[in-house]
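Bumping with the actual sequence this time:
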Amino acid sequence: MPSSYPSSPHKNPSRKSCEQTIKRILTREFEEYGENHHFKQASDFMIYFESLHPASPGLTKQVQRAVNALNLPRDEKGYFMINKTVEEYKAEQELSQLLTSSTLASLESCTPILLKTEEWKRRHIMHLMDATPQFQTLFETMTDTDNGILIYTKTPEKLISFFSEFIKTEMEQKG
């Protein structure tokens, strides 16, 4: 019995097969250029697929389905990105927006000082130290830790002197 569909000696690739091929193409592009410069939409992959399979609406739909199933993020220029997920790219964009007015500060020249104190006091002590103008000039940053408050300072002698006005403390010696 004759079929109403024209017979084709070549079967279209599966969606999964198209996905794998698209991933390989984009991975190669990324490895070669560091980013994708050529592929913005499903039709951009058709030259490759049509070199292996006869051009047909079925092949076009299969490639479109594969691109949609991959759910690849796009960069600012609209090109597909293979090295990140949509979620990673969105998080990266959000982080970029949040950091626009931020600066980096190295703590390399700072000395860490640990003020050992009970857990229940730490937050309040940090608040009071942060509110004291004299103290604000003595540290770069401070944070609550398991054993107390870790303070990074460029002037450890002045910081220790400041604390010694309030508490009778001896600096614990190393080792």
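The tokens above came from a reply further down the thread. The radius of gyration is 31 Å.
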